[in-house]
Amino acid sequence: NGSKSISGGIVGYIGSSTSITDCYNSGAISATSISYNTSYSGGIVGSTANYFTMNINNCYNTGTISSSSVERSMSGGIFGSVGSGSSKVTTLTKCHNSGTITATAHTSSSSGSRASYSGGLVGFNNNKLSITYSYNRGAVRAYSHYGSNNTADGTCVVGGLIGQLNTNGTISNS
């Protein structure tokens, strides 16, 4: 839609109910935008549409995952961002990440809002989420700044498994 930069190690964007099984990414994945509002980058999936069921089983990432944009940036070892869906569930089973995950939001001036979300498995989640028998061993980082001196400003959210969880989530044996 002209306002997003999306990349994924297996799939950039998913727009329907999907299952992904026995896949891995070992390459560097990056979504970078100097003019778009949002970037999403994931080791397996960059981003998903709203209101769909996602099942990711026995998948892993060892590559470096990064996203950078002028407003919002979301990176994760498996998913960069998971869309919203009131009755749908995204499941991750037997998944892991050992790559470095980084999200950066940067603008030239102090005006506007900046936010970076970075997670070992999921950068930003807006769906019901179930994570089972999954783990992260990679470094997870988020940066938010402005200007040529990279003045720190904005929101940075980092999690070993999930950067930001906005709806119901279940994590077990992970």
Summed up:
By secondary structure, the protein is mainly beta.
Class computed from helices, strands and strand pairing: mainly beta
Low-confidence stretches: none
What is the residue-mean pLDDT, rounded to a whole number? 88
Number of strands: 22
Give the radius of gyration: 15 Å
What is the rounded distance between the termini?
Answer: 36 Å
**Assembly state here?**
single chain
Biggest sheet statistics: 8 strands, parallel
N-to-C SSE series?
A: EEEEEEEEEEEEEEEEEEEEEE
Broad shape: globular
Helix content class: under 10%
Number of helices in the DSSP assignment: 0
- The amount of beta strand, in percent, is over 45%
Annotation keywords:
five-stranded parallel beta sheet, about 170 residues, mainly beta, globular, eight-stranded parallel beta sheet, about 0% helix
